Amino acid sequence: MHTLLKIQTLNLSALESVTQLNQFQKSLPLQCQRSEVLSTVSGYSGYGAEQGEQKLRAAIASTYYAGLGIEENDIFVSDGAKSDISRLQVLFGSNVTMAVQDPSYPAYVDSSVILGQTGLFENDVEKYANIGYMRCTPENGFFPDISTVRRTDIIFFCSQNNPTDDSPRFIFEIPGAKEVRAISEFSSPLSVLLSLVLCDIPQVALEVSSFSKYAGFTGVRLGWTAIPKELHYSDGFPVAKDFNRIVCTCFNGASNIAQAGGLACVSPEGIKAMHEVVGFYKENTAIIVDTFNSLGFKVYGGKNAPYVWVHFPGRSSWDVFSEILEKTHVVTTPGSGFGPGGEGFVRVSAFGHRENVIEACR
């Protein structure tokens, strides 16, 4: 059940105020200057290229993929990672199998359900029959033993993983990698400046990324997908050509205002400003980690991603969520929302105003 829907089922009449430390409250977006020319009669532009403005595609390629063989025409600018994940699912269709980190970002599983890839939900184990769940636990450093993963057509990796803050450091050991398509979503490119996946195995991997987290673009909506030229279907046809067809059919292109902001983000001044924003969130994270540690809880993550993964062994994550909300008026996110491997955890987000973080941690 979605967190907000669950909140509505609780008796909150006695709560005077609620502080949100989940995904729904963010600090103000990075104040990138929007191009003033868009507000003039002569400078306004209507529909642009569905793939994104050429200057932004070139800037993304040179900023994040220099030396990796990724060029501007390999970049597809979008309205965010979640949208591109769904478009990729449309591209691959319903007759594929997939594996996902457990726990991990719910959009991978949910989009697979909509496309009919997953089979029936098995209530006894709280899993879909046709999904390979790669369990991520404290014992394996929140990264699965890839050698035990059953053969699938698609493997989703999230780096840093939301919610556990691990990265796909062992992706190169995927059995039969030449025949597997790995989709890696980099939610924080400032933490991982090089896509190791695209560097080492471009013939089997593509990458989805977003400005949402590290530039505060959660409401602005801007991201991209990088598809190497070497990534082909088994018959030799380029995946990028099919994705281009999907994009041009289902999408009219990202907002020109958002793209102007994105171009400002990847300028030298913008990179500096984004590092400052990331530093601010890291300070928030340190406050949250110190608070839970002082209370005797085991805390994971919070190093390379703005999420703190707090363990409550033997307890239902929804029960913990409800108790924290009702007793402290602080909203977290139940770990079970990220998959069965998230049971017994809650995720606490450092995305928020400093005064709210301090108030919640008092």
Task: Provide a short characterization of the protein structure.
With 362 residues, this protein is α/β, with parallel strands linked by helices. It is built from ten helices and 15 strands.
What would you say this structure looks like, in words?
- The chain contains 10 helices and 15 strands.
- Residues 1-9, 24-33, 169-181 and 186-200 have low confidence and may be disordered.
- It has 2 domains: 3-29 and 268-360, Aspartate Aminotransferase, domain 1; 36-265, Aspartate Aminotransferase, domain 2, CATH 3.40.640.10.
- Helix 3 (81-92) crosses helix 6 (239-250).
- The strands form 4 sheets. A 7-stranded mixed beta sheet has the order 2-10-9-8-7-3-6, sandwiched between helices.
- A hairpin with a 4-residue loop joins strand 4 and strand 5 (127-128).
- The protein is 31% helix and 17% strand.
CATH superfamily name of the largest domain?
Type I PLP-dependent aspartate aminotransferase-like (Major domain)
Which range does the strand content fall in? 15-25%
List low-pLDDT spans. 1-9, 24-33, 169-181, 186-200
- CATH fold-level assignment of the largest domain: Aspartate Aminotransferase, domain 2
How many DSSP E strands? 15
Tell me about the largest β-sheet.
7 strands, mixed
Rounded average pLDDT: 81
Helical amount: 25-40%
Structure classification: alpha/beta
Distance between the termini: 29 Å
SSE run: HEHEHEHEEEEEHEEHHHEEHEEEH
CATH architecture of the largest domain: 3-Layer(aba) Sandwich
Spatial ordering of strands, largest sheet:
2-10-9-8-7-3-6
What is the top-level CATH class of the largest domain? Answer: Alpha Beta
Tally of separate helices: 10
> How many whole angstroms does the radius of gyration measure?
21 Å
Q: Tell me the domain tally.
A: 2
How would the global form be characterised?
Answer: globular
Protein name: Aminotransferase class I/classII large domain-containing protein
Domain Aminotransferase class I/classII large: 206-361
InterPro entries: Aminotransferase_I/II_large, DapL/ALD1, PyrdxlP-dep_Trfase, PyrdxlP-dep_Trfase_major, PyrdxlP-dep_Trfase_small
GO molecular function, one term: transaminase activity
